[in-house]
Amino acid sequence: xxxxxxxxxxxxxxxxxxxxxxxxxxxxxxxxxxxxxxxxxxxxxxxxxxxxxxxxxxxxxxxxxxxxxxxxxxxxxxxxxxxxxxxxxxxxxxxxxxxxxxxxxxxxxxxxxxxxxxxxxxxxxxxxxxxxxxxxxxxxxxx
Length: 143
Fold this sequence. Notes:
mainly alpha; Arc Repressor Mutant, subunit A; two-stranded antiparallel ribbon; 7 helices; globular
């Protein structure tokens, strides 16, 4: 499974609602850390914790391929949702993907979409404090 396939599966499953860049980034990070996915995105501590700029590049490619749709929000961030073409691709990928990996992606997305922005940062920072060292959010406020 390549990185973009996993990214697409994350956006498509399980609850088809728009996801923010922060949710996507933290989702990819947790997939790497908690599902032990090898040959995956490399993360570094950044403004809102773990970040991989390659995730943004792949996300943009998914948009350009019309697999994912983007729309601006009130806050100015783009939100992303699976397109009908992307859903067809997801269904095909999910048939050949390792079932434990797919279940893990779904489990992580369920955790992420239930949390507010601050709750999500707190969750990641508490589990992986080494990725919070460059955060512009005061870590003490999150406790």
